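DATA SHEET
Item: assembly model
Revision: 1
Owner: S.N.
Input lines:
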Amino acid sequence: MSSGEQRLQPRKKPRQVRSELMRQRILDAAARVFAEHGYAAGTTNRIAELARISVGSLYQYYPNKDAILLELVTRHMDAGVAATERLEREELSGPLAEVIRVFVRATIDNHLDDPQLLQVMLEQAPRSPALRERVARHQKSRVAYAKDLLDRHPEVRVADTETAARLIVSTVELVVHQLIAAPDPVPIPRFETELTAMLTTYLTTPPPESRTPKATTPGQDQPSKVGMPKATKLVRE
Amino acid sequence: MSSGEQRLQPRKKPRQVRSELMRQRILDAAARVFAEHGYAAGTTNRIAELARISVGSLYQYYPNKDAILLELVTRHMDAGVAATERLEREELSGPLAEVIRVFVRATIDNHLDDPQLLQVMLEQAPRSPALRERVARHQKSRVAYAKDLLDRHPEVRVADTETAARLIVSTVELVVHQLIAAPDPVPIPRFETELTAMLTTYLTTPPPESRTPKATTPGQDQPSKVGMPKATKLVRE
DNA sequence: CACAATTATGAGCAATTATTCGCTTCTCGC
DNA sequence: GCGAGAAGCGAATAATTGCTCATAATTGTG
């Protein structure tokens, strides 16, 4: 399955109008199939069946299964970026708390549609180089944007805006996803308020005395668990 | 594959001493195979090969692939609970900030071993009823414990300790995992400090004026995106 | 040592699945 | 309405994989 390189362009560029329609049909069907069965069990035949087309046709538009998921992921991310940009244009000048709230809200919106599908996307990301690359790039740009925001806002009092940026971006993305996808989902309005509050207080509260760690220590000092890695894990072979 | 009920007990109770050894061999091999290839591509034959036993033997101890992952998950969770309990016995009486730090640290420790494997566990959880149940129970107990802690500590100033408990439990679990498993991992000590700070400030800062939402509104008021669920997603068939 | 119970083996079965390709059907400019 | 290329079809293929079972090795006991 994960055998190195892989064609990602469709075998045939669409030339007629109905083609574009088909692409959308396939994507819609794939979204539902992946959401319901997961990636591994979401077979191309099932996707074709749900889209009311034949497998052969499916492979006319996407060279393989991976390419379908990749396009799904790309579209989701593009939608997220677009939504964020749209919202932030209205609020960028406001106080930090407002900007954060906009961020949180945009993320919630982006996840409300289809948490299941999103779950599958995130699952599969680490296994496909193309996907991994796409997701990593997106994540990186979001962190960069957040860092910029923090640097620009004078109310921000954290020691290290890079770490803080990564922390808040991950927090929003992950927590929103998990708590919305949960079988017993939290009440959205309150959740939005609390998450925003958490991030805002964190960013604007000055360090008690000197929360700043030494930070110059070159050697990796470890405050927790020292030397008992259960085994030589991680990739090898 | 996901065909309803499923035997989860091994086909044969071990009666000799070497049996216990085999179980451990299998588990170790499975952990590595799953971590490296993921669940779907982590074949039982590969596990057996790495464990230097035959597939047949593997199936003498575990009735199927799922059961192997289930035991892996169970062990990981038990280890986490045990570690948390051990640590908290030493610190439970301290100020909130200290307790939180202990929590964060315990979680970090628990994830440092093998982030990849953990990733696979979390991925697979939603697809296997038995796994899902196990994970849900664990999550619930952690939230309950956190709520208790918040209720007991007077410094805590949030409006709704239930929501706050869910928020912080999810945050710690998810963010620790993501930022440790990242290709460019954050510096652990600083990360621990920042995450602890974020949670502590959130919990102890009183609501600006009245951060409390109305909370009595029976109708689901929606602060964000109203009515445009892209499609009828979720299970059908 | 013998022999019965327990445990280990691994070739192979049955099922699943991504992908192909020879063929039919449709589209549209003439 | 013709015909050539575009689009669509789906049975067949090749590969993979979870798991079984007939057989062999190992163990402990008298």
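QC remark: Residues 1, 12, 15-16, 18-19, 22, 48, 53-57, 60 of chain B lie near DNA strand C (CB under 10 Å from a C1').
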